[in-house]
Amino acid sequence: MSLIYPGSDKVAERRRFILNPKSEFQKLREISDEDIVLLLGHRSPGEKYKSVHPPLDEMNLPEDPIKDMIEPSMGAKEGDRFGFLQITDSMYFSPLVPWFRGRMYHSRYPGIDTLVYSGRELMEARERELEKYSKEVIETELFDPARTAIRGITVHGSSLRLDENGLMFDGRRRYVYDKENDQVVYVKNQRVIPLDKPIPVGPPIDEKTLIEKSIIYRPETVSYRNTKEIWEVTGNVLEQNVIGGFNPERKMEE
To answer: Three-state SS across the chain?
Structure first.
């Protein structure tokens, strides 16, 4: 397990759990397949998947050893087009942070492409796989309705303070807090298109639980200064990168 992530403190342990592709995440809410499609906004529920190329079985592709080694996903076999899920994470103890979310996606979800920004993370995949991956992300402990947000455009707000209900600011007002039912409710999809019906995604996770399961090194969790093993591993990586660069032999000689 140390190969997945170094460290012996609870934050490192939590990071190892998330990065392990065999981990089973706690399911906290139920979101129907139809509602997942509506939140993503790439197609209408029940609509056939659009294609960008014929099924692989119908294509006369050149010989490629990599193609023979890797089993294509169902979306790739059928020639599905790509869709995306973009998520922003609050700096106030969101279950994940963008750079770590990207690492987790790569270790867990085959056939994805991911791009990490300072406050958000974009996952692209064939649409039928995207819906499957998004369902796990949104239904489990990887998602907090108040401090994790689905935002395809106008994504800013991750580092801004929380509102009176503990929700991240969203300039496009994609979601609101239903105080009566203690639910965060999406009224627009990630592309800011109004939904015909509101989609509840559950109550905010209490802050005590968020801090207990946080992957962020902070005074409230674990001080980064006390994580000797992580200092050594990351320091070694940075040293090799600076000294060796594109000439690894130079580092070995020293």
So the answer is: CCCCCCCCCHHHHHHHHHHCCCCCCCECCCCCHHHHHHHHCCCCCCCCCCECCCCHHHCCCCCCHHHHHCCCCHHHHHCECEEEEEEEECCCCCCCCHHHHHHHHHHHCCCCEEEECCCEEEEEEEHHHHHHHHHHHHHECCCCCCCEEECCCCCCCCCCCCCCCCCCCCCCCCEEEECCCCEEEEEECCCCCEEEEEEECCCCCCHHHHHHCCCCCCCCCCCHHHCHHHHHHHHHHHHHHHHHCCCHHHHHHC
**Is there a domain that residue 240 lies in?**
yes
Quick one: 211 and 235 in the same domain?
Answer: no
What's this model's pTM, rounded to 2 decimal places? 0.88
Q: Which domain holds residue 71?
A: 10-219
Domain assignment present for 3: no
pLDDT in tens, 100-130: 999 999 999 999 999 998 889 999 999 999 9
